[in-house]
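Worked example 3. Consider a protein that binds protoporphyrin IX containing FE.
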Amino acid sequence: MQGGDSRERKSGPFPGAEGAETPLSREDGEERKDRADAGANASGTASVVGAAAEGPRGTSRRGISRRGLFGLAGAGVAGLGIGIAADRGVQAVAAAGAPAAGSTVYPFYQEHQAGIVTPAQDRLHFAAFDLAPGATRADLISLLQDWTAAAAALTAGRDIGSYGAVGGPYDAPPEDTGEAFGLPPAGLTITVGFGPTLFETSAGLDRFGLASARPDALVDLPHFPGDQLEAARGGGDLCIQACADDPQVAVHAIRNLSRIAFGRAAIRWSQLGFGRTSSTSTSQATPRNLFGFKDGTANVKAEQPAVVDEHVWVGAGDGPAWLTGGSYLVARRIRMTIETWDRTALREQETVFGRTKGEGAPLSGGTEFTEPDFASTGNTGAPLIAATSHVRLAHPAQNNGVQLLRRGYNFVDGNDDLGRLEAGLFFISYQRRPSQFTTVQLALARHDAMNEYVRHVGSALFAVPPGAARGSYLGAALFA
Ligand code: HEM
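Given these inputs, the predicted complex is written out as structure tokens:
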């Protein structure tokens, strides 16, 4: 498993060394070199290193120019070789001895896809796609192959294609859209999933010869009490979750992957998330959701490999073999009526969750990570953690031991004409079986005191295949 992702972090001097695949070669025209240099760093090497000292952002891709590379070599960075030239200048920063903020690179080719037990990054861009009318099985396979190659490059901090944003022919559109030029990898992960309609449309059409490979559990989630789902915010043949510590890096990934899909698939709906609402590693502090409460305290964490194996990864024999080592992703766009919430007394707010707002401790006592004691009662004999509180209803003890790996994000998408924020929580959870989510959500939808302040408006379920092997592509086993 991918547990202990923190141990897999590569923040050493050459985090994106896979960049060797896309060097700028000596044969590139001088005109292009000069344009690239002018766009990246007009003054060459000295300011490549100098820029590193200025701070993390403006430092990086300046190192990709050949002029910068040769300069670095001249400055004593032995053994870099031309092969790493196309990596962003994070290398240049590290070579100068200062670890670059945002230089985290998570390996792409591994047993499980990254972006699940990976320590939850700060930013999200999530997109669901539909295959184009008339797209063929060959189109789908080629799309997954192209996405895999692009995702490997993007997560390593490289541009798309051989020439990237500014290195290509002057009279052709650049291969990479360019808005991440100069930015470090920022811990980007790209996680791809397959929706039920990829296997069979709601009209029963088997477009890609995949109907017999659909896992029995990969069907639309049931309608839960209180659901107010909007068709335009749910479903999808495919999905991509892009998480990064820099919003521009996450958006750049989705933009370029959808550009690559042009003619084969198009975005059906998408969601930006500006702040994580979970911790997926014990190394992380617990963030807060837009109700102001710590969120992610009692979550499945990467450092619990046995729990992850039992509750997150699809096991051998659970269903079709192509999904073994994968997971199921549930996405729910949950609107929060924060204006109502903000007029609610602190006592009511804490009663709704069953935890204190400041520390995040259970109302039965202790500190943040103390196990809630659901049996303890107050002076009046009433339970300290109310029967309708969110944590009681969602706790494994009330749900046959079921656990979820929650990986959601806060969002604010503008406002309505009364000045109310279109705010909420884009809930994402990973689980071995969709029924884990259904069990918990059914209990919440029926009884949760929080329902007065939330509304589920979007819903989707995807099967997330295991990670790709180097030289292969995401989901390859589905087409074997
Ligand atoms: C706007 C929607 C939601 C908000 C604001 C919210 C907030 C919270 C908060 C503050 C906690 C306590 C801290 C923690 O342990 O992380 C919590 C716990 C939890 N939530 Fe939610 N949540 C939301 C939706 C959901 C949904 C849809 C599910 C699943 C169907 C869910 C499942 C859980 C679980 C399993 C726990 C841990 C319970 C425990 O073991 O103590 N939550 N949530």
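Take a moment to read the result before moving on. The two ends are 23 Å apart (CA to CA). Residues 289, 291, 293-299, 332, 334, 336, 353, 355, 390-391, 394-396, 404, 425, 427, 437, 440-441, 444, 454 surround protoporphyrin IX containing FE (CB under 6 Å).
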